[in-house]
Design a protein that fits this description.
heterodimer; A: four-stranded mixed beta sheet; three-stranded antiparallel beta sheet; 15 helices; 44% helix; B: alpha/beta; Rossmann fold; 2 domains; five-stranded parallel beta sheet; 11 helices; 5 strands; 10% strand; globular
Chain lengths: 429, 260
């Protein structure tokens, strides 16, 4: 068979700029690699010399979609370094803030980026022409996530209210209570979302992933827990560097990560759910069962169902936090400055986010290490393509290209985080 | 029967950035479908695979220029666009990644990457206006979505956007926030910072950190002693102006007064 070249110049509906290259030789897939050309921005370098107090505001700017994740990993790492113990109310408010981000980010991905793949549209605006109610429902749920971020964070993108030790200002009971009715409506709508996405057609693609997420926390994880895997790993965040390493490949401005001695691993909704599904709220567990999910899931195409279940959970959890809320005596905790190293892992919508900082005695940053979820997932995304694409080689170029794009979008990659624009080349030899 | 008038073509372009400013458009949950009805979304890869050929009536440009390839791509964006509107601190003032402009980029690269030789980057991060003519610059890190809607509406209707260039202080007064600087609660860049965010930080009991960049005719020199009174030392003053809009002229000059 003659060499066939397929180019997808723009892989759309992901966050960031990158490219995919497939080389197909007759009926054999020779190469599948992601190239990331999102230009580097050097956050770890310019954090050096900044005050530890500035880090949550600065690292937020790594990603406009999940700034809260960067703020949460940053403040927990600083508190680890300085020995600051946060109040229970602050802990709960941080869960609430993260609920807001999961809702906003997951709904954006499900309705605007991912659902069009399953329903056969180029994007949500095109989809809205035929399915206005679907798109309007998505926007309404997303708006409630953003309302949490706006109230608790001050604004939706790059919130201003997060600080080391807690918040600059904590909300009153009445302010939080005002969210309740909208949250209840969104919760009702989100059960509909689970039904909608559970009805999509999923290719029969499963892989035996090394799934890594926070776990053993006694709660569905946001900010706390051990780093656990379905292969028996259980470590604390300070042990992360001994078990996972970043490496630099020539085609990419994003670093890739591997599990030392094991290779590619996967973080994100599949991992989080498979390791923690028993800890979802009863309502979210019921929604998962009705959607046909078991206690674990290894089909990345079904990640959209897990995101929908996690949105149910996040809305349910937000209501729980709001109903139980008593404002703390002080909005934040403090401790005397000291030199030290701090570590934290938290669960960004698209996967685990690791931060490590070394702080000098005067509170300035000596060294910073940030490993975004997409860097951790890139090797697994490539492995998905290598595993699944050979089964699709008899498809037309258009269909093959679309399936490969979808394979990438399954993991909601944020290439701005990992360093947007995915250009897909398929070369048929 | 006459043909209905052609809808204006809207394109959204990304350069070095966090995606937050273009996300602001998707965050207009109540208005997004109306916007999509009023324009033809011709290029917006974060939202759709569909691509229409230029020329475009309005291009929104996010991000700063940090690679030679992007510098060339921007020239083509300008050639294809009737109006170019930059959105956000990166596109308007180089963004936080312009911190490299004050350092040795080779050193920066080796802090982050094992193989700096694989990385293609320019020594500087520059705003869009350093490369092409820009029709309007919208401030903020991130931009405010209501201001974005105002600017889009204005350009689609051929009028000037109503975006005040006064300081955050004016918005604090309008909001009824007691001044954090006066009551000694926090050092605040509000007096020299462009309004647009809604004066959020003081309402959350912290000082403004200047993410909208300098207001029209700012006077940071006279503000400095007040910031010192509020607890900022020389290095803190140097750093606070050198964060999200480090190469905006007034902020750059003021940071230089407080250190190299």
């Amino acid at each position: 068979m003659a060499r066939r070249t397929i180019n997808v110049d723009v892989l759309a509906r992901v966050e960031g700029e990158g490219a995919l290259r497939l080389v197909v030789d007759g009926s054999v897939l020779r190469e599948a690699e992601l190239r990331i050309f999102e230009p580097p921005r050097f956050f770890e370098a310019f954090l050096r010399g900044r005050s530890y107090t500035e880090v949550p505001d600065i690292t937020a700017r790594i990603c406009g979609i999940c700034p809260v994740a960067y703020q949460m990993s940053a403040v927990h790492a600083m508190e680890d370094a300085l020995g600051i113990v946060i109040s229970p109310a602050v802990r709960e408010l941080r869960r609430l803030l993260y609920c807001g981000e999961w809702i906003e980010s997951h709904v954006l991905h499900m309705y605007m980026l991912h659902a069009p793949d399953f329903l056969g549209y180029d994007g949500a605006v095109e989809m809205a022409a035929d399915h206005p109610e679907i798109v309007k429902t998505g926007l309404a749920i997303k708006k409630v996530g953003n309302a949490i971020l706006k109230l608790l964070g001050g604004r939706e993108i790059h919130p201003v209210n997060v600080r080391v030790g807690g918040f600059y200002r904590v909300p009153t009971k009445r302010e939080l209570g005002a969210l309740r009715e909208d949250l209840k409506r969104a919760l009702e709508a989100s059960l509909g979302t689970v039904k909608l996405v559970a009805g999509f057609e999923f290719p029969d693609c499963e892989r035996d992933y090394d799934l890594v997420a926070l776990g053993d926390a006694g709660e569905y994880p946001f900010n706390a827990g051990r780093v656990v895997s379905n292969k028996g790993l259980s470590i604390t965040p300070p042990e992360y560097d001994a078990h996972f390493e970043e490496y630099h490949v020539k085609r990419s401005n994003a670093l890739h990560s591997r599990h030392v001695g094991a290779g590619a691993y996967l973080t994100g909704p599949l991992a989080r759910y498979s390791l923690n599904s028993a800890l979802l709220s009863p309502l979210a567990q019921q929604a998962a069962r009705e959607a046909g999910l078991g206690p674990t899931c290894n089909n990345p195409f079904r990640s959209i169902v897990i995101r929908a279940v996690e949105v149910v959970y996040a809305l349910d959890e937000a209501l729980r936090v709001i109903d139980a809320y008593e404002p703390p005596d002080r909005p934040f905790a403090e401790a005397p400055l000291r030199a030290g190293i701090g570590y934290a892992c938290t669960e960004a919508p698209r996967g685990m986010l690791y931060h490590r900082y070394e702080i000098a005695e005067d509170g300035s940053i000596l060294d910073a290490k940030i490993v975004p979820p997409t860097s951790q997932n890139l090797p697994s995304i490539e492995d998905d393509l290598r595993s699944f694409a050979p089964g699709w080689l008899s498809e037309t170029n258009d269909r093959l290209r679309h399936l490969c794009e979808q394979t990438i979008r399954n993991h909601d990659p944020c290439i701005s985080c990992a360093t947007h624009f995915l250009k897909v080349d398929v070369v048929r030899v | 029967m006459a043909k209905p008038p052609r809808k204006p073509k809207l394109a959204v372009w990304k350069f070095a950035s966090c995606d937050g400013c273009q996300l602001s458009l998707l965050d207009c949950e109540d208005e997004l479908l109306a916007v999509a009805g009023a324009v033809e979304i011709a290029y917006f890869p974060e939202a759709t695979r569909a691509v229409l050929k230029g020329p475009y009536d309005v291009s929104l440009v996010e991000g700063s220029v940090t690679t030679q390839h992007d510098a060339e791509r921007l020239l083509e964006v300008r050639r294809q666009s009737r109006r170019v509107i930059t959105i956000g601190a990166c596109a308007t003032a180089g963004g936080i990644q312009a911190l490299r402009n004050f350092k040795d980029v080779v050193g920066f690269t080796s802090v982050v990457y094992a193989h700096p030789e694989f990385i293609e980057t320019l020594a500087t991060s520059t705003p869009i206006s350093a490369h092409v003519e820009v029709d309007y610059e919208l401030r903020g890190c991130p931009i405010d979505k209501h201001q974005l809607l105002e600017v889009l509406t204005a350009f689609l209707n051929g009028r000037r956007p109503n975006i005040p260039a006064h300081s955050v202080c004016v918005d604090c007064k309008a909001r009824g926030t007691v001044c954090v600087l006066v009551r000694g609660a926090a050092a605040c860049l509000g007096p020299v910072t462009h309004a647009g965010c809604g004066a959020i930080c003081p309402a959350y009991n912290r000082g403004c950190y200047g993410c909208f960049g300098p207001k029209e005719t700012p006077n940071p020199v006279s503000l400095a002693p007040r910031l010192v009174d509020a607890g900022m030392d020389k290095t803190a003053l140097h750093r606070v102006y050198r964060t999200f809009n480090p190469v905006a002229d007034a902020f750059k000059k003021e940071s230089e007064r407080h250190g190299a």
